[in-house]
Amino acid sequence: MGAPFPPISTTDLPAYYRELGDDDILRSIKNFDDDIHFEQFDHKVRNPNSRNFLIDFGDDEAWCAFDLEANSFTRLLRTNTARPKYKMDACHLISPNIWLPYDQKDTLHALAKHYDFSPNLLGLMCSEPVQPKANSAGPSKSGSTLWSRKSPRQGSPQKSSKDPSLGSEENIGMADLTQSTETGLFRDLTHYHIVDEVWHWSSVDWGRRFVCLGFNALHCARTSPPDQAEEHDTRKEIPHVKRVWNWLVLCEDKTVISIAEDPFPFSNGNLRAYELKMLVAVRRNLVNVFKQLSKAQCSSRESSVNTLPIRKRVGDTEEETAHRPTDSPGLLFYYLFEDWYTTYSLVTRREHQYAAKLDKLRKDMLIKAELGHVDRLHEIGRQLAVLKRVYTGYELIIDRVLKKQEATLASLKNSYVVSGPDSLASSIPQIAVVESLLGVSLSSAARVRFERLKDRIRLYALSEIQECLDQKNSLVMMNFNLIAIKESFSVERLTRITLLLAKVTMLFMPVSLMTAFFSTQIVNVKFTLRDYWISFSVILGSSFLALAIFGFASGTTEGKMIYKPLSRIVFDISKAFLFRKNRKVS
Questions:
Q1: Average of pLDDT values for 329-358?
Q2: What does the DSSP 8-state code read for residue 311?
Q3: Angle at which helices 273-282 and 284-292 pack, to 10 degrees?
Q4: 218 near 239, Cβ under 8 Å?
Q5: Of 243-247, 362-366, 429-433, 542-546, the least confident
Q6: Which of 79, 63, 62 is closest to 22 using CA atoms?
Q7: What is the chain's Cα-based Rg?
Q8: Strand ranges (DSSP E) for 163-233?
Q9: Average pLDDT over residues 475-481
Q10: Between 230 and 89, where is the model more confident?
C-alpha cells in the first residue's frame, strides 16, 4: 500500500480546489510532480483495490487523487469551465480513470449527467459483470461477499388463472410461454455477455459534448493457473489471452475519461500470484501513460520507446507552446487507445506464439504426419480469425474517429440550425451549424497519430495474421500430402512383401516339383541321395539366378524404398563414372 502521504497544507493547493469546500478532495489530492507523492501514487495505480483516480494537469503543474466519491467528481467537473479566470491554470486537463465500474454507478451517473450521455450508453457502462462459467452451478469459490444476484422479476406476484381478463386457457398458456421465453432470452443477457462472446464487438458513440469509444483490449497474459494447461480450455476457438473491455471518452472541456472492465470482478480484491501478474499486464499501457503525465524525477527513468509527448517536450518555441493546450486532450485520448506493446506481443514480433506453433507443427508433420495435426491447425486458424476481426474492428474505430462530421441538408431541414445569414430574421432561437454537430474534434497532432496507428495495424498486425492464415492453409495441404505419401509408402511396402513372398514361392516351386519327381516309383529307375542333393542344388541355384535376373531387369529388386529398372541403374552408373572421369581430367 505504500507509506502514508505526508501532511500537506491546504494553502499549497490551487484556489479552485480550496473553493470547492470538499474535504475528500482536500484530503486526497496531492502534487503529482513531487517525487514522494509520485512514488506513492505509482504503487496505488498497481493496487487491485484501487477504485479510481483523477489527474488534473497542465504544462506547469499536475495534481492527482485516488478513490474519490461521485460528489467530488461532480464538483470538479462543474468548476472545470471556470478555470480560465485562474490565469496560470487555464490549460489544465482533467483525466478520470474508473476501475470497478459496476461498483461506482453513482460516479458514472454523475459523468453521464454532466456530459449528457445517452441512456443506452449509461446502461452499458453500468452493466453487471459476467458470472464465471466454472462457478455457475454453485457458489463462487473466490470468497467474494459483495455479490448477491437475483433473477429479474423473481419475486413478482403471479396472476391467478381464474382472472376473467386473461381469456381462455389457451391464451393464458400462450402468454405464460411468451413471458417465459422472453425471460429466458434476456434474463442473463448483459453488455459483458455480448463482448465476451463477440470479441470484435466495438462501439463509437457521438454526443454534442463527447465522443466515446468502446472496444475489447487483448493482453498477452496467462489465463489459467500454472498447474492447469491452457490447451485444455473449453473455448479453444479463442486466443489464450486476457480480454478486457474499455471505454474511452473525449469531452469538449478537455476531459478524457477512461473506464475499464474489472478482470476479476468476483475476487473481492484477493488475487492469486498469476492473477496479479495478469493485472500488471492489463494495466501496463495505463501505467506508462500515468507515469508520463508527471514531471517527477523518478518518472523519467523510462526507455525512449515509452516516452510520450504529452507533458514532456523538447522544444519550447512560441508556435509549439501555443498549441499544447489543444493538443494534449487528443494526445492523451490517442495514447490511452494505442497499446502497441500488446499488439507487438501477440502477432507483430518475430517468432510470436502463433508463428512458433505453426513452425512446431510443421516439424512434427515432417517427423510423423497424422490427422490430429489438422485439428490443431483448425484451432489456430479459428484463433487467428478472431484476432483478424478484432484488429479490423480497431481499424474501423479509427475510421469513425477520423471521419469529419459535416452538416447536410437533411440535418438542417426542420431544425433550429442556421447555415447562413438568411435565417437571422426568424424569431425562433437559432443554433450555429458547428455547435449542432455531434462529436468532439481532434487536434491535428492526434489525427496524424491515429492515421499512423491505422497503417501499423494494417501493415504489421493484419498482414502478419493473414500470412499465418495462409501458412496454416498450406500446412493443412502439406499434412494431407504427407499422409498420402505415407500411405503410398505403406502400399509400396505391402507390394514389396507380396513380391518377396511370390519370389520365395517361385524359388521353391521347381524344388518341390523335383522332390515330387524323386519320390515317384518308376520301374527300373533308382535315385540315390547324392543324385537328389545335386539336383536340388542345381535347380535351386538356377531358380535364384533366374529370379535375380528378372528382378534387376524389371526394377523390383528388394532393399530399396523406390524401385529402379535395370536400364535406369545402368544409366546412373554410367553417368557417375563419366562424371568422375571428367573430374580427374580437369
A1: 85
A2: T
A3: 50
A4: yes
A5: 429-433
A6: 79
A7: 39
A8: 202-206, 210-219
A9: 92
A10: 230
Grid coordinates in use for 374?
Answer: 489438422
Looking at the DSSP bridge assignments, the partners of residue 16 are: none
Burial of 12 (0-12, 13-18, 19+ CB in 10 A): exposed
According to DSSP, residue 309 is labeled T
Average pLDDT of the residues in 393-405: 88
Pull the grid cell for residue 261. Answer: 472492465
* Interatomic CA distance for residues 465 and 299, integer angstroms: 36
CB-based contact 514:539 (threshold 8 Å) = yes
Kindly report the pTM of this predicted structure.
0.74
Q: How far apart are CA 202 and CA 398, in angstroms?
A: 11
Other Cβ atoms within 10 Å of 257 Cβ, number: 25
Strand order across the 256-260 sheet: 30-31, 62-66, 52-57, 93-98, 256-260, 242-251, 210-219, 202-206
C-alpha cell recorded at residue 87: 490565469
Residues contacting residue 110 through CB under 8 Å, at least 6 positions apart:
70, 71, 73, 74, 77
Q: What is the largest CA-CA distance in the chain?
A: 148
Residue 435 has pLDDT above 70, yes or no: no
CA 544 – CA 125 distance, rounded (Å): 89
The H or E element containing residue 71 is helix 70-80
Burial code (b: 16+ CB inside 10 Å, e: under 16) for 440-469 equals: bbbbebbbebbeebbebbeebbbebbeebb
Rounded to a whole number of angstroms, the distance between the first and last alpha carbons of the chain is: 83
- How many whole angstroms separate alpha carbon 58 and alpha carbon 65? 15
Q: Which of 352, 346, 310 is nearest to 331 (CA)?
A: 310
Q: Looking up cell 489543444, which residue turns up?
A: 326
Q: Are 317 and 430 in contact (CB under 8 A)?
A: no
How many residues would you count in the chain?
Answer: 586
